[in-house]
Amino acid sequence: MTNYFKILIIFFLLSINIVQAKPNIKARTAILIDYQSGKILYELQPDHSIHPASMTKIMTTIIAFDLLTQERISLDDKVTISEKAWRMSQAGYSSMFIMINDEISIEDLLKGIIIVSGNDACVALAEGIAGTEENFVSLMNDKAKEIGMTSTNFANTSGINNPDNYSTVRDIALMSAYLIKNYPYYYEYFKETEFTWDRTGGDPITQGNRNSLIYKNIGVDGIKTGHLAVEGYSLASSIKKKTRRLIAVGSGFKTSSLRTSQSRKLLSWGLTNTSTYEISKKNETLFKIKTWLGQNETISGYTKEDIYITIDKKDYKYFNTFIEYTGPIKAPIKKDKEIAIIKVYKKDELIKSTPVYAVQNIKKINFILSLLTSFNYMIWGDA
Description:
Elements: E1 2-6, E2 29-34, E3 40-44, H1 57-69, E4 78-80, H2 83-88, E5 103-105, H3 106-114, H4 119-130, H5 133-147, H6 169-182, H7 184-187, E6 194-197, E7 205-208, E8 220-228, E9 232-241, E10 244-253, H8 256-273, E11 274-280, E12 287-292, E13 298-302, E14 307-312, E15 319-326, E16 329-330, E17 338-346, E18 349-358, H9 367-380
Helix pairs in contact: 1-5, 3-4, 4-5
């Protein structure tokens, strides 16, 4: 017998919202995704090739965070500044304003990259970690392939003008989600509003975060701005409201003010018009399923992946979630055996199907008790 058990999911709509049409975003290319479910909520030519400008620095920091997590480097490690890195601070680009032969910690260089978008800090960090910027760029491209950024190539660590430095907003969103998921501790740097660099041979320099949305007190905690004359203005941004997070990436904004206003518009539209619900947390959420001839009357099941569903608020009444299994499940049952499937439907359309696995072993009851149980079932049924 195949059983269907509906999972009760309560859809809380805290206020009555008028569902709005897709926003008209004044950019060349843009995308909005839900971080938990990965669902694309909005897209405008998401695979159009762009020069990512300083959004490149997201990958520069990911390489450093990887090595920090592996304890191959530490935040206190010092990097001696080369002439190449120093010249970046003299070329008119955004800079941390480092000096030749300064010894600067990895942490200060990271803050110089993340908060003030220092191109000089990018070169210094790359040389300190990999010997040369070129070696570091190889690490960046290897990581891009690992993440699944199929339309991206990095040619430098800063994103300054280079025709071989290209990506898409889809790939940048994927990279941003990877950053947030894998390095939550270091991601905290991205919401800091200013950085003071106590430079050698001069007064300390304090510079603010270039992401204007950070200052709006709306829940935005990252990620990275960009600007090139050939590309226009760009921004990868993320907003968190309670447990929900959205990521927006846009490029080809004509002004920095449009970059801010249009990214905010996109994030606000996503929060207002869609909702995300947790169905199952990987290895944590337990589902009770009936057994037959087992030493336990039920067995707990778990999923090997997080299950989140993002829906338009106007459509919430059309969604149903079921646990489907053939049963009761006959003992013995081995731990980690697939015992059921979670299925999520929108009306009659199956939109998500995920296996459920046994948490523990369930032994079969002894022969005599098995006969009594079977006889009782024949007379009384599943009572």
